[in-house]
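Our consortium's second objective concerns turning raw sequence data into structural hypotheses that experimental partners can test. To show how far this objective has progressed, the report includes one record in full. It was chosen at random from the queue rather than selected for favorable results. The single chain below, 255 residues long, was entered without modification.
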Amino acid sequence: MSETELSVVCKNCGSEVSPYVTECPYCGARLRKRAPKLERRGDALEPRPRRSRPSLPRLLRAHATDSPRPFRPYATATAILGSAALLLLLKATGSLIGTYGGLIVPLEDEWWRLLTAPFAYVDVGYLFVVAVGLAIFATGLERRLGTPATAVLLLACGSLGMLVASGIANAQGGIHTIAGGNGMALGALAAWFAIRRGETHGAVDADYDAIGVIVCAAVLLALPIFESSADPFAGLVGAAVGGLAGLASSTLHHD
């Protein structure tokens, strides 16, 4: 029976009675378990609307719909895990870096090495430093730009850096081996910094640790000193590409 009806009919005796009673005053039959709650509206008393309780399945569906989708940095994870897999294969087989995508100068016709060289490593320490840089900055970059754009940007920073590095090495003569993602990590750092600076309107110190960013950049720039396969020009070009991409993204966002 509805709580908003003016009267209800007793199923036992057929008399019309008030909807605010629990027993029929004529025959004593039970009409409802408890009387409805009343609330004052002006000078009259009206029944309080009953609030339906959502069922458990409905609550679960609502929670699944309203809860934000968890962020998963697929591009960053692929760059790190793919490089780790190649390094593991290299160590397990005892092969040379050229077998697993390293860039050998003179390049000749193997232009595909420009795309694979940023993911090839001969040293675990080199990979560790780059992986930490990517985990810090590429993850924040991917959260802002999305996975496809971040994947393209990382690949562009790494491959364009390798292209310039191979050209300079080829001009110097001799045989050179260039590998690793220092350009990719520096590109992610520069792009993240440009976007973050735009978000804070230049107030860098007020929002994040600028000294920490500088230290990370210095470590990545110093990698060629300790690792022979890391090229300084690849790192600088990667940083330039990432910085320009970050500035363009920040400008388009504010416009």
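The partners drew two points from this record. Residues 147-172 form the longest helix (26 residues). The longest strand covers residues 38-41. Both points have been shared with the crystallography group to help prioritize constructs.
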